[in-house]
Every structure is written in C-alpha cells, then in structure tokens.
Protein 1
Amino acid sequence: MPRYQITLTGAGRGRFEAVMTDRATGWQIVFGDCRREMRDGQRICAGPQTEGRGLWMLEMRKKADGYYQIDLTDAPHWLIRFEDCELDTEDGRQCITGWCNQAEPLVAEKEAA
C-alpha cells in the first residue's frame, strides 16, 4: 500500500478541506481552507496548511484525462505529488482521493546535496 494518502472534500461555499496522512507514521497535514482560483489560465484549488507549523501549500488541478493532480509543497524543501487522484465516496460524501509512495526534494535541496 502506498505511504501517503490525500483526501479532499467540499466544505461548502466554494471551499474545500484536505487531509494528507503518512500511513507509516500516522502524521497528518490539514488544509482546512482551500479555495478555487485562476492560475496560469487554469482553474485550480489552493490553500495553506491550517494546523501545525503552516509551511505546506496545496494545489490541485484537473488533468486532461479526467483525473486530478494534487501537489503539496513545503518550499524550498519537499514536494509530495499525487498524480492520479480520482472522485470517490467516503462516509457518504463525495471526495477526491489519491495515493503516492514518496516525497521528492525540490530543486534547491537537490542542488545543495
């Protein structure tokens, strides 16, 4: 089973909530106030981490194949990319769920190594 799971659900009034869980440690990142916006001519959903240190950012885009891509970044250090997120149902509510196996260092970290 992949290490990281993300679930994004509607919170009403055009807002969304997301929770990323590290299934190996139980650690979670909560994004409690994500909103739709336009970026680079594309409609995305974006928001900051709302619990804890607050260093992570979420961006979700719909891909041409109908799936969603959700990127979590802890700039300038880490990227967790969920490539093929899909519509799902959890506890009777529609959501978008994705899985991935690893966090990737961002370019600044790769260059420093």
Protein 2
Amino acid sequence: MCDTTGCSRQEALKTLEKADYHVKCAIVMRMKECSKEEAYALLDKVDGKIDRLLK
C-alpha cells in the first residue's frame, strides 16, 4: 500500500484499520481521499478492478 499510494507505513496502517483491513478499499480511500463507504461504492462500480479507478 505504501508503494502504491506514497504514504508512510503509519498512515497505511491507520487507513487499513479504517478500511477493516481491506487493501483495495484502503488504497481507494487514500488515492481518492474518500470514506470507506465511498471507496466500497467506487469499487462496486468497477467490479473491484482498482486499476480502473486509479487511471
């Protein structure tokens, strides 16, 4: 997650906790600056294919 988002290990752990340790959700939360609920909704729209969100 740190490599993908550019955040520190501590920031990654905080975000992962907020995302209930769902890595894709946590990455979307960091990259899109959104809530867990918004991240899950975004992932649902792209069938969980995170690369579609991060283009």
Protein 3
Amino acid sequence: MVYFWAATTIFWFAVMTYLSHQNGEETSRTSWILAEDVHRIWARESTEKINAFLRKAAHIVVFFILTILLEKTLAGIGSDTLRVVWTGLLVVWCWMDEVTKTFVPGRHFSWLDVGLNLLGFLLGMGTSCIA
C-alpha cells in the first residue's frame, strides 16, 4: 500500500507544481474559468470576488492534500527519521513554491501565499494527527 500512497503523493506534487508554475496569463485564465463556473452555481458574489477567493483558497487546499498524502506515505514506511526529514522539506517547499514563481513570467513571490501554504500544511498535519 505504501507504493500506492507514494505514487499518489508524487502525482499530486507534480500536478500542483505544474498548476502553480503556469505563466501569469495561463493561471489567470484557468482560475477565471473556474470562477465563472462557480458564479453560475452561486451567483450571490461577483466573479471577481469568487476568483480572488479561489486563488487564495487553492494554496490551502493543495498543501493540505499534499500533507495528508505525504503523511499516509510516511506512515506506511514507519520511519520517524524519514517523517521528520520529509515534513521539514515540505515546510521548506511552502516557501520555495513561491520563490520559484519569480522565474515564471507574470508570476511573483508573495509572503501571504507562503502563509496560506503553511496554513494548508498545518491543517493537513492536524488532520493526520487526529485520524
């Protein structure tokens, strides 16, 4: 089962990193299309507000899921040393994900987004501890 969780974790990391590192125009288009779809269902808020919310909530959600998947993988391995090392690397990636965006046209570094990444990580760790 550990191979399943490891493969799923790697796949999720690849997908979230790809989406996170789209150029500014692509990422804006992707989130705007989703915001329009949500607006059709829940029209109480403007598409602009929904888009802004989705763009920030995405940080929390993708890091929450990554943390849960990584914890499932590490639980299957059973090594406390690996758990500490990989958890530390994930915390560093919460910051590095934003740093690497400075190399992508139309993207920028944001401390707020680092904080949202860390919030997703902390929620994932809390959920993993409870489950």
Protein 4
Amino acid sequence: MPEVKERARRMKAAIRERRGNPSISVNNGYRDFDMIHLTTEQLADRWQIRPKTLCNWRITGIGPKFLKIGQRVLYPMDIIEEFERNSIKSNTQQ
C-alpha cells in the first residue's frame, strides 16, 4: 500500500509541473486544504484508455463520479482513488 501512495504523490507532483497547479485551494473557515482534480485526458492517460471511453462511461453512469462546471469535466482525485480501490478484483468471475 505505501507504494501506491508514493505513486499517487509522484503523479500529483508531475501533474502540477506539467499543467501548472491544478489544485484548488479551499478555505471553508475551518481549515485550508487542496483538492486535486484530473481532466478527462489526464485520467485517460492514467488508466491507459481513450478519453472517449470516459465520455461513454459518463453517459452510461458506469465510470467514476465527476464534476461538471460549465463545459469542463473534472474528476476529484479522492473519487478516482476510491473507484480504483473498488475496482480491484481477484479473478474474472467477480
């Protein structure tokens, strides 16, 4: 499990370097925290699938939950990681 967290940390750092800083700082009056979001293209690259596949999954409701702000589609990192954890299978019968 530590290697998964380390890989996620490196990926977040790489995304920040490539695209500027996609973090949205939120101050809710109680604490400050960063919420990392991936675009459709970034998530498709992470999972090695076509962006069109994610689009089809959004239409059918089988992919991860997402934010839609205007025309922009974003996937919160915590939702992505939860979706990945829930997708782990030990055999093809599951």
